[in-house]
Amino acid sequence: MLDREGFRPNVGIILLNQRNQVFWGKRIRTHSWQFPQGGIKYGESPEQAMFRELHEEVGLRPEHVRVVARTRDWLRYEVPSHFIRKDARGHYKGQKQIWFLLQLMGRDSDMNLRATTHPEFDAWRWHDYWVPLETVIEFKRDVYQLALSELARFLPKSQGQANRFLRGSMRNGAPGRRHDDEEGTDTVVPPASQPE
Predict the structure, then answer these.
(1) What number of other Cβ atoms are within 10 A of residue 12's Cβ?
(2) Residue 14: closest CA among 96, 86, 97
(3) C-alpha span between 85 and 81 (Å, rounded)
(4) For the whole model, what pTM was predicted?
(5) Which among 22, 113, 127, 128 would be 20 to 30 A from 147, CA to CA?
(6) Taking the CB of residue 107, how many other CB atoms lie within 10 A of it?
């Protein structure tokens, strides 16, 4: 299913753990890493497609995640012609994607890369939010940067951020504050300071 401009509707998924690290999957039999993503079938909404792809690629069900945010509009990338099947050249240009930011509410053990007979990934890991884009296939990098940048403002406060706030309040002499250990601290670097 292509739009008039030759772009296939698609969804992308940025899955967060409780430390605001993202699920980073290694495409099967390659050295390329990426976020889960996949096409929207005829009659599906972007959200329905996202939940289907989440289960097919990562093995998670809707009860394992919380939808935090999604991109406002479609983000597009063109696929170089040498990656396009010969019979599709001329009318297929690439993908247009709605990106979803999800929070894992379940456990790592809920994930299953072999949930279907056609797995997309053969390995995965948690990675800092600003993933190394040089490990993403080149023609998708700009869309990844756009999606990460747009959705960064919706990142939930991690445990470490809350503790820094409490610790700062204690230094200011605020009474009745509990002093917690600072675990799981993640620092989110704004896109402008990312290495080129």
Answers:
(1) 24
(2) 97
(3) 8
(4) 0.79
(5) 113
(6) 9
